[in-house]
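Data deposition worksheet. Section B asks for the primary sequence of the deposited chain exactly as it was used as input, without tags or linkers unless they were present during the calculation. Section C holds the resulting structure in token form. Section D is free text for depositor observations; keep each observation to a single sentence. Incomplete worksheets are returned to the depositor.
Section A, Depositor: J.P.
Section B:
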Amino acid sequence: MAQQSVPQGASIAAPPVATAAPTPVARPATGRRRAIVIGAAVAVAAVAVTYWLHARRYEGTDDAQIDGTISNVGPRVAGTVSAVYVIENQSVKEGDVLAEIDPTDLRIAVVQAKAQLAQTQAQLEAEDPNVPITAASNVSATSTAQSDLAAAEAALSAARTEVAQYSSQIVQAEANDREAEIERTRSEKLVAQGAVSQADVDQRENAAAATAANLDALKHSLDGAKARVAQQQAQLVALQSRLVEVKSNAPRQIATRKASVVFRQAAYDLADAQLAQAEKNLSYTRILAPVTGIVAKKSVAVGDYISPGQQIVAIAQTEGLYVTADYRETQLEHIAPGQPATIHVDALGLDLRGSVESLGGATGSRLSVLPPENATGNYVKVVQRIPVRVKIDPGQAGMDRLRIGMSVDPEVTVR
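Section C:
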């Protein structure tokens, strides 16, 4: 195409520009977006307010589980297991027989204890009458000693009287002997003068000899009487000592007999207690369930030798279950005993009612095997947890399915 020339000084007119038509605004779409954003903000605000209101009124935790008592059952006597009547997960009632121990040895022990009791009873019955017998013997011995002492005193008095009599008789005999001697001497002088006959002299001499002999006999009798007095005095002293001995020994003999009876009675009581223990041990051969629950673990079989203290069956109690909820310490400001709680059981999808029973006495870290020692210098503050015990209200449906250790989510109403 040939280029057209433009005269110098002439202006070139710009070609007309086409004007674009105005684009319409999508107002309805923008309004919907705004409505969605506002609605979302309102919903978030509502959720936040609801959560805030809920958080103010309730305190919950997922660190919680069903808790209860597990009874570890063991034998009270040693022996060989002869029978086992339970298996794991079996329900048992209080008093059910779990297992049995061979009772042969314990039956023999009962027989021995009965024999020992019979022996001690016989010894007690033989010893018991000795107390009154000894008392009667002591009374008799005392009476006899007193009688012998009285007789000895009377004999001594009689011997002394006899000495006095012989002494008086000797005085009289000495007087008679002196008189007879004087008559004899006088007659001898008179016969020389022829004043008396020889027969009269002989008579006087015989009388003097008789009086002398009588005097000598009386002196010998006096010596015998004195000897008897000494003998009676010695016998009296011996009898007095005997009476003192009898009176002194009588209480001791009674006390000894009574002590022997007490000893025999104690031996009898001991044998009776040993018999009761032997019979009790025989009853222990039947191992009974102490509580109602479920056999959680069984570690015994027929033929095992078991001894006291050995755990053979663990029974998880199904009654008296509760919840142990480990709350953070920052959640405990408003939690107090008696507050109502809702318990959600994860395994069962079940909601139960309960109430706060008590708060723990220490944090879980303090009750651990190795509690932390913050004084070492490497201290990092960690929010602690304290166990809260929540009681489950009885009589609710589904409680028979609860098991110790199940995870739960308790929620306590604090306002």
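Section D:
The longest helix spans residues 198-283.
DSSP finds four helices and 15 strands in the chain.
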